[in-house]
Amino acid sequence: MERVTWFFLAYLVRQLAALTMAAQTNLNITTDRSALLALKSHITNDPQNMIFTNWSTTTPVCNWVGVTCGARHRRVAELNLSYFGLTGTIPPELGNLSFLVDLRFRNNSFRGTLPQELARLRRLKFINLAYNKFTGVIPSWFGSLSKLQIFSFYGNQFSGSIPTTIFNLSALQIIDLGYNQLSGTN
Ligand SMILES: *[C@@H]1O[C@H](CO)[C@@H](O)[C@H](O)[C@H]1NC(C)=O
Ligand SMILES: *[C@@H]1O[C@H](CO)[C@@H](O)[C@H](O)[C@H]1NC(C)=O
Ligand SMILES: *[C@@H]1O[C@H](CO)[C@@H](O)[C@H](O)[C@H]1NC(C)=O
Ligand SMILES: *[C@@H]1O[C@H](CO)[C@@H](O)[C@H](O)[C@H]1NC(C)=O
Ligand SMILES: *[C@@H]1O[C@H](CO)[C@@H](O)[C@H](O)[C@H]1NC(C)=O
Ligand SMILES: *[C@@H]1O[C@H](CO)[C@@H](O)[C@H](O)[C@H]1NC(C)=O
Fold first, then answer.
1. How many Cβ atoms are within 10 Å of 12's Cβ, its own excluded?
2. Which residue range is the domain that position 148 belongs to?
3. Does ligand 2 lie within 6 Å of residue 48's CB atom?
4. Could you tell which of 64, 69, 80 is best to mutate to test the pocket of ligand 3, judged by most ligand atoms within 8 Å of the CB?
5. Which interval of the chain is the signal sequence (predicted)?
6. Whether residue 143 has its Cβ less than 6 Å from ligand 6
7. CATH number of the domain enclosing 123
8. Bridge-partner residues for 136, per DSSP?
9. pTM score, two decimals?
C-alpha cells in the first residue's frame, strides 16, 4: 500500500513538472493577439476598412471581425478574412496561433511566400488561400500538418512541383491547387 502511495506521489510530481514546463513554453491568448497585430501590421491596404479600425487593442481579440475563439480554450480557432480585399504578406508570427483549426484568406491580395513557421499550426484542419497572389513553392512541411482535411490554394502563383509529403496526410479529403504555375505530374 505504502509503495503504491509513493509511486502515486512520484507520478504527481512528474505530472506537475510537465505542466509547469508546458505553461512556460505554451502560447496563450496574449500571444494570439500579438500574432494578429503582427498580421495587421503586414497589411498595406484595407479598402473596405475591415480590420484597420476593428482590430483595436482596446477590444478583446475574440471580438475582432473575422476571429472566432474556441469555447473551451478561448484561443483563436478560426481566422476568416475572406473577401476583405486585403493586400499584404503573412508574418511568421501567424505560426503562433497554436489553436488555429480553420484559416481562410480567400479572395484577397496576399502575396509573398508562406513562412516556415506555419508548420507549427498542428491543429489546422482547413486552409483556404484561394484567389490571392502567393508565390514560391508549396512547402513540403504541409505534409506534417497531420489533421489537414481540406486545402485550397486555387488561383495563386505557386510554382514548382507538388511536394510528395502531402500524400502522407491521411485525413485529407479535398485538395485544390488549380490555376497556379505548378509543374510535374498533376
Ligand atoms: C501569457 O503568457 C505570458 C508568458 O509567456 C504571461 O506573461 C501572460 O501573463 C500570459 N497571459 C495570459 C492572458 O495568460
Ligand atoms: C468589430 O467587428 C465585430 C464583428 O462585426 C463587431 O461585433 C464589433 O463591434 C466591432 N468592433 C469594433 C471596435 O468596431
Ligand atoms: C468567411 O467569411 C466570408 C465573408 O465574410 C463568409 O461569406 C463565409 O461564410 C465565411 N466562412 C466561414 C466558414 O465562416
Ligand atoms: C511568436 O512568433 C515569433 C516569430 O515566429 C517569435 O519571434 C515569437 O517569439 C513567438 N512567440 C511569442 C510568445 O510571441
Ligand atoms: C474572387 O476573385 C476572383 C479572381 O480575382 C474574381 O473573379 C471573383 O469575382 C472574386 N469573387 C468575389 C465574390 O469577390
Ligand atoms: C510518410 O510517413 C511515413 C510513415 O510515417 C514516413 O516514414 C515517411 O518519411 C513520410 N514521407 C514523407 C514524404 O513525408
1. 10
2. 2-182
3. no
4. 80
5. 1-22
6. yes
7. 3.80.10.10
8. 158
9. 0.85
Ligand 6 within 6 A of 146 CB? no
Name all residues whose Cβ lies below 6 A of ligand 3: 80, 82-83, 104
Name which residue leads in pLDDT, 18 or 138. Answer: 138
pLDDT over 90 at 120, yes or no: yes
**Cα-Cα end-to-end distance for the chain:** 64
Distance CA 53, CA 49 (A): 7
Residue 75 CB neighbour total at 10 angstroms = 20
Distance CA 153, CA 144 (A): 17
Long-range (24+ apart) CB contacts under 8 A made by 47-54 are 47/85, 48/84, 48/85, 50/81, 50/84, 50/85, 50/86, 51/81, 51/84, 51/86
Q: Is 29 in the pocket of ligand 1 (CB under 6 A)?
A: yes
Q: Tell which atom from ligand 4 comes closest to the C-alpha of 96.
A: 1
CA of 107 to the centre of ligand 5 (A): 6
Question: What pLDDT does residue 183 have?
Answer: 86
Residue located nearest, by CA, to atom 3 of ligand 5? 131
- Tell me what the mean pLDDT of segment 40-60 comes to: 97
